[in-house]
Write a structure and sequence with these properties.
Blueprint lengths: L50 H10 L19 H19 L3 H12 L3 E8 L2 E8 L2 H20 L6 H13 L7 H15 L2
Antiparallel strand pairs: 1-2
């Protein structure tokens, strides 16, 4: 019997086209994407976690944005069951709108919104120098997931749109490389423009 995500969507035909991310986007089939912290004790072992579970974990703790903690993750806590239902509803809408496997759409959205280079700062004498650096594959996936989830929370907080609506639109916008609809794509383009100017 074939194991499917949420007992509905198969992953055996889903391919990661970006060769740099191929080892870091895990598509091992699981019925319920929940490992219970099995990989948290080892550095970089989150790559062994299914990509759907990593997205679900980001829904619980999307992380901070920028050094000044512009966005807090305090409003995003909750039980796994809540985020399970949100993600399942999102996948159902994605499938309904695209007529494609939502896991395939999610993987393509992550690939499209994963930035390739960013800026770091270091001190030379008495001045701070900004320099473009290549982003590691693990960080590319992490930042992509964070940007997608943070954008969805930002659009739904205090608005009429629910988290299901905004997360669906964000994933579809990233899938279509639409900077008008996806803040993750817009953020990626902004950082890469700055990095290009700092080369």
């Amino acid at each position: 019997m074939e194991i499917k995500i949420f007992d509905r969507w198969p992953v055996k035909d889903v391919k990661v086209e970006d060769k740099g991310l191929e080892q870091y986007i895990n598509l091992r089939p699981v019925l319920v994407p929940r490992s219970g912290g099995r990989y948290s004790k080892h550095q970089l072992h989150k790559s062994k976690m299914n990509i759907v579970e990593r997205l679900m974990n980001k829904l619980q703790v999307p992380g901070h944005r920028s050094r000044k903690h512009v966005i807090t993750s305090g409003k995003a806590v909750g039980k796994t069951n809540i985020h399970y239902k949100i993600l399942k509803a999102v996948f159902e809408r994605v499938e309904q709108q695209t007529k494609k496997n939502p896991i395939e759409v999610l993987v393509k959205a992550i690939e499209n919104s994963a930035l390739r280079e960013e800026i770091t700062q270091y001190q030379v004498g008495g001045i701070m120098v900004r320099r473009a650096v290549i982003t590691s594959p693990q960080r590319r996936v992490d930042l992509s997931l964070s940007n997608i989830v943070q954008a969805a929370y930002r659009k739904s907080f205090g608005k009429k749109d629910t988290m299901v609506d905004t997360l669906t639109n964000e994933i579809l916008g990233a899938y279509n490389k639409d900077g008008q609809k996806s803040e993750a794509i817009k953020e990626k383009e902004r950082i890469e423009r700055e990095a290009e100017g700092a080369r």
